[in-house]
UniProtKB/TrEMBL annotation:
It comes from Paraglaciecola arctica BSs20135. This is Multicomponent Na+:H+ antiporter subunit D. Belongs to the CPA3 antiporters (TC 2.A.63) subunit D family. The chain crosses the membrane at residues 36-52, 82-103, 115-132, 138-156, 168-189, 209-227, 247-270, 282-299, 308-326, 338-358, 370-393, 413-439, 460-479. It is a multi-pass membrane protein. PANTHER family: NA(+)_H(+) ANTIPORTER SUBUNIT D1, NADH DEHYDROGENASE. It is found in: Cell membrane; Membrane. InterPro entries: CPA3_Na-H_Antiporter_D, ND/Mrp_TM, Proton_antipo_N. Its main location: membrane. One of its GO terms (cellular component) is plasma membrane. Residues 132-425 form the NADH:quinone oxidoreductase/Mrp antiporter transmembrane domain.
Amino acid sequence: MNLSAEMLIQLIILLPLAAAAGVLVMHRHPNIREAISLTIAVSVFILVYTLYQQIISGQTAMVTWTTILPGLSISFKTEALSVLFALIASFLWIVTTLYAIGYMRSHEEQNQTRFYTFFAISIAAVMAIAFSENLFTLFIFYEVLTLATYPLVTHAGTEKAQQGGRTYLRILLGTSIVFFLPALIGTWAIAGNLSFTVGGVFADDTPSLWLAVLLVMFVFGIGKAAMMPFHRWLPAAMVAPTPVSALLHAVAVVKAGVFTLMKTVVFIFGMDNVGELITTDFLLYLAAFTILASSLIAMRQDNLKARLAYSTISQLAYISLGVLLATEAGLIGSSMHIAMHAFGKITLFFCAGAILVVSHKTEISQMAGLGRKMPITMIAFFIASLSIIGLPPTGGSWSKYYLLLGTLETEHWVLMAVLMISSLLNIAYLLPIPIRGFFPGKQATSQAGDAPEKIQEAPLPALIAIIITTLGCLVLFFYPQPLFELAKMVGVAS
């Protein structure tokens, strides 16, 4: 049966909600509950891949659910960046669900049905964000995503989890109310149009000062992009179980943030306008500061998930910097980095969760010699680290190459230096972890020998997920062409 593109878009958004309903109905049957999650996750990915094939062949589609005012509707549309984001999110939904089965059961987590339910609802919100035809639609589902992920952040139910959840809501909802919503209203008042349009929605005679102020408000208002000083929600959310951390850092929340920023810059302002605004340089250097500051903070963290959280803040700023450069190379680099960082960072979090489940260790200082007992996990951590650093033979080397090329084209030599220094800092805070795992030193080996521990690899479903995402880091180096073709199409009129 051949489905129209319009029907595909709606199924992609609605099927995760069907998964959530199925999980609730089958809450007494864990095997069926998780089979529903996996089956629908695979189905959604297949549907998104079908849209990818249509986009590559030059076809687009649009569907409207309801019109609130003339020119203001809840509508969805396919374009290259939308499909790229949806492909990554839908594929990693499959892998994260597989990982969660092994993690949640082995860790004997409570409220697993609630976890899978809100996970599915979050994915529905992500798909709606991905295919939003206008800024109004995107804003609605951007906020739905915040609310849907809150129960996941507070999953443990402890006071620390509740406190982390409050910080999460306070910053994300606060930035939306104070900056994002007023910027959206200001755009509507000035342009009279919120539809994502190649070249932007503003008339040529729009005062540049207004646009400059609006751009700053959007950057600060899109709190999920974690630009400093609105980044603290991300480390605070690390109290959640590892599958939730993977969801936050690779599949849904942070990627929704940088995706929203990219859509706003490219299709609301237009690349040409952004390149000429007086506040663009300020935002570029704010992104550069975020890259370096968060990397330096990461180096000081002994807790593995905290170190990875600050690493994520740094990597998100790469994407923000790339699109704010307002060049083709920068846009390609940002688009590709959404995928490259997703595979690298989700692998690192999967490894952190595997270490916790098997060895109950959370601090890096406790992990000496662990690589000899969990070799697959530590090798995966090493490969994913290379991708985050941007070294061959991993996919991260391509996105960082194009980001550097963007700084070269615009002659932003300081920003180029920041990217290079940041990669050195990535080496400093990531590579010592697997090195410590495989080469602990005589003293650490002796101490480990005093109290032998029964440590082995993670449960099979989690281990399979780790292997898949690790292979993804490598495949994206040797076969980046499909991703590159999509990235080149971003911002090009169909």
